[in-house]
Amino acid sequence: MYQIALCDDETTELHTLEQMLRSYRGHSIKDALSVRSFESADALLFAIEQESYAPDLIFLDIYMPTLSGLEAAKKLGEMELPCLIIFLTSSTSKDHALEAFDLNVFHYLVKPVSEKSLFTSLDRALARFKKETTHYLLFQAENQLHRIAADDIVYCEAQRKRQCIYLKNGEQLILHMSMIRLYEMLAAHQEFIKVGISYIINLKHIERLGTQALQLDNGKEIYLPRGSYKPLSDWYFNHCFGAETEGE
């Protein structure tokens, strides 16, 4: 699933983009999109910094009060957020072209945005995503944002009111959030699955799966709750071999 953020201080423009994106999803069922709208750049940055929101693609209006799209793009660059930015502008002037190039902006769309131009930009963005194999997540820990590759997460463990993420390099990340919230963040990546009430594991890191326990490639052994082996093994098989079997 791809996370798409819309940021425009004009409510009418936001609603129009939302409607067109719903239409796009209807024509592209294989590319699941999750859309979230923001009426200011400040609100978008707050969600990223405080809620660990990690959009893959941002449609960002250049001209907004308080914090402009250009200023927001600079802040996103400083945060090293691995996302694509498409600027929305009501002007055809090229005054911002050079600055946008320095910010690694993916594309421009002139308002009012047409369905054809929006769909073309989405097609290009999704094609770029499919070429990239690394997907990242943002986590707030110890008053800092941490950009973590999904593949680097071996498993997560609930520790009372905290969640501990174990990475393949041996490091640990302590998060002050609920297991439900953490799973919501990870659920967009199909390799993550809950095991019991205390664990979320990355299927890519399973080394051995038995009827009573599984072992991860970092040596961690997790005992399976009663009745969980069959659905877990089915999920694991579909994740590892589903793409191949569907094409046969």
Q: Mind explaining what this structure looks like?
A:
The chain is an alpha/beta fold and 248 residues long. It is built from seven helices and 15 strands. The chain has helices at 11-27, 41-50, 69-78, 97-102, 115-131, 179-186, 229-246; strands at residues 2-7, 33-38, 57-61, 84-89, 107-110, 136-141, 144-149, 153-159, 162-167, 172-175, 192-195, 199-202, 206-209, 213-216, 221-223. A hairpin with a 2-residue loop joins strand 8 and strand 9. It is elongated and about 60 Å long. The model is unreliable at 242-248 (pLDDT under 50).
Helix count?
A: 7
Strand portion, in percent?
Answer: 25-35%
Q: Round the mean pLDDT to the nearest integer and report it.
A: 84
| Spatial strand arrangement across the major sheet | 2-1-3-4-5
Which structural class fits the helix and strand makeup? Answer: alpha/beta
* Percentage of residues assigned to helices: 25-40%
Distance between the termini: 24 Å
Largest sheet: 5 strands, parallel
Order of helices and strands: EHEHEHEHEHEEEEEHEEEEEH
